[in-house]
Amino acid sequence: MSGGKRALQAALAHLEEFLLDLLTEVRGERPLRRGHLFAEEDPLPEDPRLEAMATALLGRVEGLGERLGLPRSLRSRRRARLAQVALLWSELEGVRPEGLRRYGPLEGELLGIGEEVEALCQGLLRLSECMEERRVEDVPQDPGGVRRF
Question: How far apart are CA 126 and CA 115, in angstroms?
Fold first, then answer.
């Protein structure tokens, strides 16, 4: 596949992913998430116009992809989550007490967070290790019988 087709395929795949997520939301199939430290707000309304527009755009993406013979790219959800874990670990490394000192002197409760941040970092590393484990029977084989990792 040429570089131009590869670039177009990547852009259309990102657009398709966005539109599928948008459709999930406007159909009321994706509830707002709420954690202890964050909450989502201001959901898109269940609006037939938005759904129709997104569906029409998806049709155009599909049509262009078929017309040009663009292949479907496979994305590993597991690898994407592992990448997120790596980014989160890096972010936590930056908020250890020694890293927070760049914002000024640490006072009060911030002085004692080192052990908790370390526990979070270690927990993410263990989570990552667990996510990386794959049983041999779960590993796909190519037609020649060689297991791909």
Answer: 16
Contact predicate 51/27, CB 8 Å: yes
Q: Which two tokens stand for residue 63?
A: 């049509």
The position carrying tokens 């041999």 is 136
Q: Which of 31, 32, 30, 26 is nearest to 55 (CA)?
A: 26
Kind and range of the H or E run holding 77: helix 77-93
Distance CA 139, CA 142 (A): 10
pTM of this prediction? 0.73
Rounded Cα distance, 118 and 112, in Å: 11
Short-list 145, 148, 15, 17, CA closest to 77 = 17
What's CA 54's distance to the chain center, in Å? 21
Residue 149 has pLDDT above 50, yes or no: no
Tokens 């939301």 correspond to 25
Instruction: Give tens-digit pLDDT for 37-93.
Output: 999 999 999 999 999 999 999 999 999 999 999 999 898 999 999 999 999 999 999
